[in-house]
């Protein structure tokens, strides 16, 4: 069996963990790497310990949830400030200052652990030490978020916190009754409605596990498999390099939770290939940014928002994924379609078939890499909790990595197969006998790798993946911590009801205007704020309002989730586009304009889902009552495909040949008619679509 490590072999551990330029990894606000010298080694091992603590807490769950949350935030502050000191500080004094902040932040987690029972007894009557530690926690979370995520999220959270202190002086309807300092500190720093609220619970319980899982798969060579498969499948079609970027980003989205990281990881390979094939730099960057951000709506991980959504709505995770499947396929279908049209307009062909790898040979040679991902999906849909499924998926990929060099040392093929079958049976027995047996299997493999000289580098891959997973989880975890300030303000003051009332007042007369207001809120909040905090804030504000207006609960949350993602493509911030800019050697604004064109049809899908919830496999309407639910889903899917397809033709100006202005307007009118949920609008849309096809075809035939 072929090793799942990349073709170049395992990355040397020392280079990977100490050299800041070792990899093109992304962690918002920080250069790559862990630092050099002894501080770099210490930071590296802190990241390993962070991962091991979280994995132990997930696998055995013996600690109370409040302690796990507090230690999670403590580790985030410790590792975050240590990395700032190692990678950003310009002097020894500056480095020592940030290390001190990290240790102080970690002490807040230890304080919650040691004082867990006394703090419960002192609820409502905090002592002076409690208030000091709570204040320190809040200040450090703000500073950590500013350092790791930039100013926008810290400023927004700061406005909400200031409202708690001074809102009693504002005019109606924003006035509140006023709160004491001790009440505010207790609410945000010790309860489960502030920093240690639902977002940080999801970060500690779900997100961290899946981020580490993705890091393990990347170390094992999954990115190479995705790239080879995408090249072989679509590299030869029209606009092949851009189609490869789209497909590889969709596949990468199944395991990665960061769209910006996807841009940097796969863009290094796809953007130069697109430019070499004739695509303009801005368009190449736009394709990569659009496809990479779309990876966040691709099940099963969905940028980690799926877990927060399931926890917030108190629905099974499988229901969230079920609602996301069709829109995710449509989103990437739109990008494929737009690339195909643009390539036709610019007369750009695909890559020569003989130069491309065979996609099925790539799968045949590296098929073991697919097994942990398949096991993860099976466990999630079989009803197991995301914590269990993620932990078991991570354990299985660890077994795969450790077992590969051992199997390579077994001579006869039959004996190797016996080894893999026995190992597979032992690993799969966790379903029947629990986590302990799987832990014993992993421990035995690690001992065997340590004893055998040729297998020892594999232990370095495991160690480096643990460290990299913790580092990748830093921005997400810190965003979840500081967004707890926003959620805590909403629960403490009730200000959300004011915003909800405004949306309901607009929507009672026009639902479309309420949706438009919600979309603009998501796009404005998304200027520099990652998808997870954007979703948490907007769903807390707009989700209940849309529910009051008759939008199904899951659809309303998907609506704000989608436009939270689109915010990373829209100017002036457009994080994904600016991440692609140095690779494409174009400006972030130009790339953003191209990304908006490519995703233009994708903006339609959330609106269509509101008016026809069956697009997200929710309750059916009149067609379902008359003809059955499958017929309605099929009709809505066909209508959506035709509508967004015509919208793309109108934007690009090409189908079988270049279109005239009149044809583009006709295609636009047909697409809009299919979006509107008005009487006879679908019939009008299909009629206009036929008229467009006839006019376009006849003109080209005469020409």
From TrEMBL:
<feature type="transmembrane region" description="Helical">
    <location>
        <begin position="362"/>
        <end position="381"/>
    </location>
</feature>
<feature type="transmembrane region" description="Helical">
    <location>
        <begin position="595"/>
        <end position="613"/>
    </location>
</feature>
<feature type="domain" description="TRAP C4-dicarboxylate transport system permease DctM subunit">
    <location>
        <begin position="414"/>
        <end position="618"/>
    </location>
</feature>
<feature type="transmembrane region" description="Helical">
    <location>
        <begin position="476"/>
        <end position="505"/>
    </location>
</feature>
<feature type="transmembrane region" description="Helical">
    <location>
        <begin position="125"/>
        <end position="142"/>
    </location>
</feature>
<feature type="region of interest" description="Disordered">
    <location>
        <begin position="1"/>
        <end position="28"/>
    </location>
</feature>
<keyword id="KW-1003">Cell membrane</keyword>
<dbReference type="GO" id="GO:0005886">
    <property type="term" value="C:plasma membrane"/>
</dbReference>
<feature type="transmembrane region" description="Helical">
    <location>
        <begin position="67"/>
        <end position="89"/>
    </location>
</feature>
<keyword id="KW-1133">Transmembrane helix</keyword>
<feature type="domain" description="TRAP C4-dicarboxylate transport system permease DctM subunit">
    <location>
        <begin position="137"/>
        <end position="401"/>
    </location>
</feature>
<comment type="function">
    <text>Part of the tripartite ATP-independent periplasmic (TRAP) transport system.</text>
</comment>
<protein>
    <submittedName>
        <fullName>TRAP transporter permease</fullName>
    </submittedName>
</protein>
<feature type="transmembrane region" description="Helical">
    <location>
        <begin position="320"/>
        <end position="341"/>
    </location>
</feature>
<keyword id="KW-0812">Transmembrane</keyword>
<feature type="transmembrane region" description="Helical">
    <location>
        <begin position="633"/>
        <end position="656"/>
    </location>
</feature>
<dbReference type="InterPro" id="IPR010656">
    <property type="entry name" value="DctM"/>
</dbReference>
<feature type="transmembrane region" description="Helical">
    <location>
        <begin position="96"/>
        <end position="113"/>
    </location>
</feature>
<keyword id="KW-0472">Membrane</keyword>
<dbReference type="InterPro" id="IPR011853">
    <property type="entry name" value="TRAP_DctM-Dct_fused"/>
</dbReference>
<feature type="transmembrane region" description="Helical">
    <location>
        <begin position="437"/>
        <end position="455"/>
    </location>
</feature>
<feature type="transmembrane region" description="Helical">
    <location>
        <begin position="149"/>
        <end position="170"/>
    </location>
</feature>
<feature type="transmembrane region" description="Helical">
    <location>
        <begin position="200"/>
        <end position="217"/>
    </location>
</feature>
<feature type="transmembrane region" description="Helical">
    <location>
        <begin position="536"/>
        <end position="555"/>
    </location>
</feature>
<feature type="transmembrane region" description="Helical">
    <location>
        <begin position="511"/>
        <end position="529"/>
    </location>
</feature>
<feature type="transmembrane region" description="Helical">
    <location>
        <begin position="42"/>
        <end position="61"/>
    </location>
</feature>
<dbReference type="Pfam" id="PF06808">
    <property type="entry name" value="DctM"/>
</dbReference>
<keyword id="KW-0997">Cell inner membrane</keyword>
<keyword id="KW-0813">Transport</keyword>
<dbReference type="GO" id="GO:0022857">
    <property type="term" value="F:transmembrane transporter activity"/>
</dbReference>
<feature type="transmembrane region" description="Helical">
    <location>
        <begin position="387"/>
        <end position="406"/>
    </location>
</feature>
């Amino acid at each position: 069996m072929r090793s799942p490590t990349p073709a170049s072999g395992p990355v040397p551990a020392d280079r990977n963990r100490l050299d800041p330029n070792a990899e093109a990894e992304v962690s918002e606000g920080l250069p790559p790497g862990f630092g050099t010298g002894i501080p770099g080694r210490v930071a590296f091992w802190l990241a390993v310990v962070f991962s091991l603590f979280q994995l132990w807490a997930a696998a055995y769950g013996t600690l109370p949830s409040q302690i796990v949350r507090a230690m999670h935030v403590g580790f985030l502050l410790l590792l975050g400030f240590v990395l700032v000191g190692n990678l950003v500080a310009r002097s020894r004094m500056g480095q020592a200052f940030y290390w001190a902040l990290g240790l102080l932040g970690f002490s807040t987690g230890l304080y919650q652990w040691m004082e867990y029972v006394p703090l419960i007894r002192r609820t409502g009557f905090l002592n002076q030490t409690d208030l000091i530690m709570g204040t320190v926690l809040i200040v450090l979370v703000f500073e950590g978020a500013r350092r790791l995520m930039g100013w926008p999220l810290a400023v927004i959270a700061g406005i909400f916190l200031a409202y708690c202190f001074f809102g009693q002086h504002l005019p109606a309807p924003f006035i509140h009754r006023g709160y004491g300092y001790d009440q505010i500190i207790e609410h945000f720093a010790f309860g489960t409605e502030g920093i240690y609220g639902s977002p940080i619970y999801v970060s500690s319980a779900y997100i961290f596990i899946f981020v580490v899982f993705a890091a393990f798969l990347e170390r094992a060579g999954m990115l190479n498999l995705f790239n080879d498969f995408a090249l072989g499948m679509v590299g030869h079609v029209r606009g092949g390099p851009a189609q490869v970027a789209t497909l590889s980003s969709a596949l990468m989205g199944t395991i990665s939770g960061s769209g910006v990281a996807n841009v940097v990881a796969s863009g290094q390979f796809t953007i130069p290939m697109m430019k070499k094939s004739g695509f303009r730099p801005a368009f190449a960057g736009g394709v990569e940014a659009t496809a990479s951000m779309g990876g966040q709506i691709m099940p099963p991980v969905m940028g980690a928002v799926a877990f927060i959504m399931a926890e917030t709505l108190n629905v099974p995770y499988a229901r969230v994924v079920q609602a996301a499947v069709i829109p995710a396929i449509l989103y990437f279908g739109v990008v494929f379609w737009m690339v195909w049209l643009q390539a036709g307009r610019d007369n750009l062909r695909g890559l020569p078939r003989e130069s491309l790898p065979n996609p099925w040979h790539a799968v045949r040679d590296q098929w073991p890499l697919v097994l942990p991902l398949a096991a993860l999906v099976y466990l999630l849909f079989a009803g197991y909790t995301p914590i269990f499924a993620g932990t078991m998926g991570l354990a299985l990929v660890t077994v795969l990595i450790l077992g590969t060099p051992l199997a390579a040392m077994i001579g006869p093929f039959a004996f190797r197969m016996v080894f893999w079958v026995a190992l597979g049976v032992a690993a799969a027995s966790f379903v029947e006998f629990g986590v302990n047996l799987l832990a014993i299997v992993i421990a035995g493999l690690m001992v065997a790798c340590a004893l055998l000289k040729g297998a020892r580098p594999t232990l370095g891959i495991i160690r480096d993946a643990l460290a990299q997973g913790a580092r990748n989880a830093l921005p997400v975890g810190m965003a979840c911590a500081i967004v707890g300030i926003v959620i805590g303000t909403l629960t403490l003051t009730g200000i959300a009801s004011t915003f909800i009332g405004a949306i309901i007042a607009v929507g009672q007369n026009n639902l479309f205007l309420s949706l438009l207001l919600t979309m603009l809120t998501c796009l404005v909040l998304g200027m520099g704020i990652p998808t997870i905090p954007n979703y948490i804030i907007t769903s807390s504000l707009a989700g209940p309002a849309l529910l009051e207006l008759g939008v199904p609960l899951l659809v309303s949350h998907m609506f704000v989730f989608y436009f939270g993602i689109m915010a990373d493509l829209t100017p002036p911030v457009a994080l994904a586009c600016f991440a692609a800019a140095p690779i494409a050697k174009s400006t972030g604004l130009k790339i953003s304009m191209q990304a908006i064109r490519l995703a233009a049809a994708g903006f339609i899908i959330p609106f269509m889902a509101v008016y026809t919830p069956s697009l997200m496999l929710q309750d059916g309407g009149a067609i379902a009552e008359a003809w059955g639910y499958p017929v309605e889903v099929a009709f809505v899917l066909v209508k959506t495909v035709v509508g967004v397809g015509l919208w793309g033709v109108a934007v690009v100006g090409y189908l079988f040949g270049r279109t005239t202005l009149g044809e583009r307007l006709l295609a636009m009118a047909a697409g809009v008619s299919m979006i509107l949920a008005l009487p006879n609008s679908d019939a009008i849309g299909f009629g206009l679509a036929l008229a467009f096809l006839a006019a376009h075809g006849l003109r080209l035939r005469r020409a």
